[in-house]
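Standup notes
- DV: blocked on the single-chain target, sequence here:
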Amino acid sequence: MYWALGARLERALANFMLDLHTGEHGYTEVLPPYMVNSESMYGTGNCQSLSRSYSRFQPIGGKRIRITRQQ
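- DV (later): unblocked, structure below
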């Protein structure tokens, strides 16, 4: 974990690399979702085979949402 100047340097380096590769090398920046509903997980084929590697919680409204665990 970085604090103060270390965290700022890490963020600056990430921003630099994103700007460099999207601006000069033709890459497209993508921000994938951190949370998805169970229908989305099933549609991508990740629901059944990897169900043990996902955390679950019950939000307001009764729909189950899954968050991937970082191990």
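- Follow-up: The helical segments are 4-24, 38-43.
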